[in-house]
Specification:
The protein is an all-alpha fold. The chain has 5 helices and no strands. Bound molecules: ascorbic acid.
Length: 128
C-alpha cells in the first residue's frame, strides 16, 4: 500500500488535513461563526464521513519515524488506538446523519462529540 514510511505519514496527514478543513466548516456553522447552510453542512459531512475511513490504515508498524507527531503509544497501545479511531468514525457517522436531518441543534450536538473524539486522540497520541 505504501512504498516507504514517509508515504504513509504524508497520506494520513493529508487525510487529517481534509477532515479538519471540512469538519471545520460545519463546526463554524455550529458555533455561529458562519451562516447555517444545511446543504453545505450535509455536503461537508459526507466528505468527513468518507475521509474518516482513510487514516487508520496508514498507521502501520514502522511508520513512527519521520516527519510525524505520532507518539509511540499508537503502536504500544494498538487496541486502544484502534478503539479511539473507531470512536471518531462512529461519531462522524452520527454527524453525517445530523447534517442530513438539516437540524442545526442536532448538528451542534454531533459537532461537539466529533470534536471530543478528535481531541481525545490528539491528547493521547499526538506530540504537541
Ligand atoms: C477541529 C479540528 C480538530 C478538532 C479539535 C477538537 O475543527 O481541526 O482537530 O476540531 O480541535 O478539539
Amino acid at each position: 500500500q505504501f512504498q516507504k514510511p514517509e508515504d504513509a505519514i504524508k497520506y494520513r496527514q493529508a487525510a487529517f488535513t481534509l477532515m479538519g478543513n471540512h469538519f471545520g466548516r460545519i463546526a463554524a456553522m455550529a458555533q455561529g461563526k458562519a451562516p447555517f447552510d444545511a446543504k453545505a453542512a450535509a455536503a461537508n459531512a459526507e466528505i468527513v464521513l468518507l475521509v474518516s475511513k482513510l487514516p487508520y490504515s496508514a498507521f502501520g508498524e514502522g511508520t513512527d519515524l519521520g516527519n510525524t507527531k505520532a507518539k509511540p503509544e499508537i503502536w504500544k497501545e494498538a487496541p486502544k488506538f484502534r478503539e479511539a479511531a473507531e470512536k471518531m468514525q462512529a461519531e462522524v457517522v452520527k454527524l453525517d446523519a445530523a447534517a442530513k436531518s438539516g437540524s442545526l441543534d442536532q448538528i451542534k450536538v454531533a459537532v461537539g462529540e466529533v470534536g471530543k473524539s478528535c481531541k481525545a486522540c490528539h491528547d493521547n497520541y499526538r506530540e504537541k
